[in-house]
Amino acid sequence: MIPQTFEQWKQCIVKDCRINLTKEFAEQRLSVYRNEKNPETHRFIALYGEQHLNNIIYWLKQV
After folding, report:
1. Is residue 52 within 8 Å of residue 5, measured between CB atoms?
2. Against a cut of 0.85, is the pTM above it?
């Protein structure tokens, strides 16, 4: 399931993946996802689409 809301995404990250949503985690992920030249960002877009990438960036900013 691809999360559609911040709360769904948060549950996926915290409960399912057991990742703490810290400021450091958010900043690290943002540095990857904001870099259009990063291969990981390209893979993410190929798998989930640009709209989901934009959602993730927005949600990471909330952390």
Report:
1. no
2. yes
Angstrom distance (rounded) from CA 20 to CA 42 = 25
Count CB neighbours of 52 within 10 A. 16
**Cβ density class 17-51: b for 16+ within 10 Å, e for less:** eeeeeeeeebeebeeebeeeeeeeeeebeeeeeee
Q: How high is the pLDDT of residue 1? A: 82
- Taking the C-alpha atoms of residue 32 and residue 55, their distance in angstroms, rounded to an integer, is 14
CA nearest to 14, candidates 25, 30, 27, 1: 25
Other beta carbons within 10 angstroms of residue 60's beta carbon come to 19
Any idea which residue has 């990471």 for tokens? 60
